[in-house]
Design brief:
The chain is globular, with a radius of gyration of 15 Å. α2 links the parallel β1 and β2. It has three helices and four strands. It is of the alpha+beta class. The model has no long low-confidence stretch (mean pLDDT 88).
Length: 98
């Protein structure tokens, strides 16, 4: 699990306030296709906002599952929206000689 400082969490929450949801959880729920799309989006953006368009009564249980299944950290859950953070993988140089 990622270890974030309080300052980092505050910064992510502030940035998240200005964001629009990237993905929406629909009536299908957390399908493998949805998780694949979420993983792909997290490759390009470290911080993502996900809205629960459906399954709103299950969001408390589903939000931590989203974080766990994508290897991200749940920064906050407000209303029907969750904010997830996963650092971009650091690229290894292809021709690195030690």
């Amino acid at each position: 699990m990622l270890s974030l400082t309080n300052a980092q969490i505050r910064e992510f929450k502030a940035r998240g306030q200005l964001m629009k949801p990237t993905l929406k959880v629909g009536k299908e729920g957390i399908t493998p296709e949805f998780l694949a799309a979420l993983n792909e989006a997290l490759k390009h953006n470290e911080l993502l906002k996900v809205k629960f368009a459906e399954l709103k009564d299950q969001k408390k249980e589903l939000a931590p599952q989203l974080a766990e299944k994508t290897g991200s950290q749940l920064i906050m859950r407000v209303g029907n929206v969750v904010l997830l953070y996963r650092p971009k993988p650091t690229a290894m140089p292809e021709n690195s000689v030690e």
